[in-house]
Structure formats: structure tokens, C-alpha cells
């Protein structure tokens, strides 16, 4: 009896999760809390973009990128008017440790990629202006198919 109840509970949870998923890119754009969405373009939804600086002249940018478009896409470059250099990197040995540059970031159709303290993230260096907590930084993501998307990034912390 206990096993039957467990299976019924699991099936119910799966059903609830599936009904919560948007059926199309248009519905996906409406499925997010407007307070957490930074930018939207052609089924690409940028959620909760924020940044932190742990040392002078370097900013790490984090966000979740949802690809609700009809095709997979690739982020091929990053830029910002606040930095001479911008790119994609991945922490290799744990949170905020041993970042290695990567050339591009695949965005599979129907999936989300988290840019966070444990893995992929964006890096801005050669800062062109002084930035303080509370400022908003425009960061441009260039996708191979979708084109350029400017994302307003909240600068949360300067810790140096």
C-alpha cells in the first residue's frame, strides 16, 4: 500500500510539473516573474542578471538564460561599454575557483543554462568606469542565430 501511495504521489508531482511548463516560446515569456526577467528576444529569456566584483578591474556576471526558441543557438561573444574586454569562462575547481576562458556557449533548444558561481559565467575586465553597488551595467550577448541582446545587469557587490 505504501508503495502504491508513493507512486501516486510521484505521478501527481510529475503531472503538476508538466502542466507548469509553458507550451510555446510566447507562453514562456509570460511564465516568468517580470521582476526577475532582464531581457527577452526571440524566445531567449534572461532571468535574474546580476554581477559582483571580488577584485579591482574584474566583474563576474551571473544569470539564467532560457532558450524557448525554435532552434538551438550559441552565444559567440560578450561586450559591455563598461569594459575593454568581456568573455565567457567556467569555474573548474569549485565555487569561484580556477576560471578557464571558453570561446562560446551552446544554448540547446528548450533548455536553460545557469551562469553561476559554480560553473559558466561572464567576465568583464579592463573596466572603463568606476562601478558601485546598485549600478546597472549594460552587457550585450551576441547569439549566432538570434543576434545581439542587451541585458541590464544589476551590480550587487564590490568586495575589495
What does this protein structure show overall?
The chain is an alpha+beta fold. It has a single domain (25-158), classed as Immunoglobulin-like. Helices cover 16% and strands 51% of the residues. It has 2 helices and 11 strands, in the order H-H-E-E-E-E-E-E-E-E-E-E-E. The protein has helices at residues 2-20, 25-31, and strands at residues 37-41, 44-55, 58-67, 73-79, 83-91, 99-102, 105-107, 112-115, 120-127, 136-143, 147-158. Strands 1, 2, 3, 4, 5, 6, 7, 8, 9, 10 and 11 form an 11-stranded mixed beta sheet that branches. A hairpin with a 7-residue loop joins strand 5 (83-91) and strand 6 (99-102). The longest helix is centred in the first third of the chain and has 19 residues, at 2-20. It is globular. The model is unreliable at 1-29 (pLDDT under 50).
Write a brief structural summary.
The protein is α+β, with helices and mostly antiparallel strands and 160 residues long.
List keywords for this structure.
160 residues, alpha+beta, Immunoglobulin-like, eleven-stranded mixed beta sheet, 2 helices, 16% helix, 51% strand, disordered N terminus
Instruction: Encode the helix/strand succession as letters.
Output: HHEEEEEEEEEEE
Q: Roughly how many Å apart are the termini?
A: 59 Å
Q: How many β-strand stretches?
A: 11
Helix-strand makeup class? alpha+beta
Q: How many discrete domains?
A: 1
Biggest sheet layout: 11 strands, mixed
Low-confidence stretches: 1-29
What is the name of the CATH topology? Answer: Immunoglobulin-like
Q: What form results from the Cα inertia axes?
A: globular
Helix content: 10-25%
Amino acid at each position: 500500500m505504501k508503495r502504491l501511495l508513493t507512486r501516486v504521489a510521484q505521478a501527481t508531482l510529475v503531472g503538476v510539473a508538466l502542466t507548469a511548463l509553458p507550451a510555446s516560446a510566447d507562453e514562456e515569456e509570460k511564465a516568468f516573474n517580470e521582476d526577475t526577467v532582464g531581457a527577452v528576444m526571440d524566445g531567449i529569456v534572461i532571468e535574474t542578471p546580476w554581477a559582483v566584483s571580488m577584485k579591482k578591474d574584474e566583474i563576474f556576471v551571473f544569470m539564467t538564460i532560457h532558450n524557448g526558441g525554435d532552434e538551438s543557438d550559441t552565444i559567440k561573444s560578450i561586450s559591455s561599454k563598461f569594459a575593454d574586454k568581456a568573455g565567457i569562462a567556467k569555474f573548474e575547481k569549485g565555487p569561484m575557483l580556477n576560471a578557464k576562458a571558453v570561446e562560446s556557449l551552446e544554448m540547446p533548444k528548450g533548455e536553460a543554462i545557469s551562469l553561476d558561481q559554480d560553473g559558466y559565467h561572464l567576465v568583464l575586465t579592463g573596466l572603463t568606469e568606476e562601478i558601485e553597488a546598485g549600478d546597472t551595467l549594460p552587457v550585450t550577448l551576441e547569439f549566432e542565430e538570434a543576434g545581439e541582446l542587451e541585458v541590464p545587469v544589476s551590480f550587487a557587490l564590490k568586495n575589495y
